[in-house]
Amino acid sequence: MNHSNQGRRGFSLVEMLVALTISSLLLTATLGALDASFKSYKVTTESASSHVVSRLVMQRLGALIRTGESFGPFPVNPILTPIIESDSIEFRVEPNPDVNAYEIWRIQLTPVVGETGPNELRSIVERYENGALVNTSERTLMRRILDATFTLEYAVGPRLRRATVDINMLADDVQGDTIGSDMSANALRMVTSISPRRLEE
């Protein structure tokens, strides 16, 4: 009796179909996990990047308010309404007291031109020398801002007693342009309260 033919028997059609089905299921699960990890990476990097940028901007704003003078907008009557809320803040900075020059900084919430999406927080700096405007520069500090509120508390003068900055923003990162995802990071809220340095002396 010859048993060599039984030893060379191949896979049956049913066995091949079962193996292909299992392989395709494993491949689908692997690709799904990989896609989820890329989307999660996108959300994480957007949140981390936006958080770092917003903290740097808030620290810079705090430093400018601490050293600034002649704040605005002013209340109509600081006795009756000493607190004013605005979507902008303005103050004077003297980078070099030895030179007859100063800068007027205005930080304001600005709608994005041509888009219906969130706003931008923009910085407009006007430099004056000997009382004349010599230079104006404008730049974006943060994008995708939902809301920005500057609460200014004045004493009689009007002298700024305290400024509170409250910014709500959406996460933003260049990864959003390269990785498509319906996942989204939570909105960030940054709040700080600063008093001008002259009040601490």
Task: Give your account of this protein's structure.
This protein is of the alpha+beta class and 201 residues long. The chain has one domain. The protein is 29% helix and 38% strand. Strands 1, 2, 3, 4, 5, 6, 7 and 8 form an 8-stranded antiparallel beta sheet that branches. The chain is elongated, with a radius of gyration of 30 Å. The chain starts with a helix and ends in a 7-residue tail after the last strand. 16% of the residues are buried.
Brief summary of the model shown:
The chain has helices spanning 4-7, 13-67, and strands at 69-72, 83-86, 88-93, 101-110, 119-129, 132-155, 159-169, 188-194. With 201 residues, the chain is α+β, with helices and mostly antiparallel strands. Strands 1, 2, 3, 4, 5, 6, 7 and 8 form an 8-stranded antiparallel sheet that branches.
Keywords:
201 residues, alpha+beta, 8 strands, 29% helix, 38% strand, elongated
Structural Rg: 30 Å
Uncertain segments of ≥5 residues (pLDDT<50)?
174-179
Q: How are helices and strands ordered from N to C?
A: HHEEEEEEEE
* Record field, number of beta strands: 8
**Helicity, in percent?**
25-40%
Question: Looking at the structure, what is the overall shape?
Answer: elongated
Mean pLDDT: 81
Counting DSSP H or I runs of 4 or more residues, the number of helices is 2
C-alpha termini separation: 109 Å
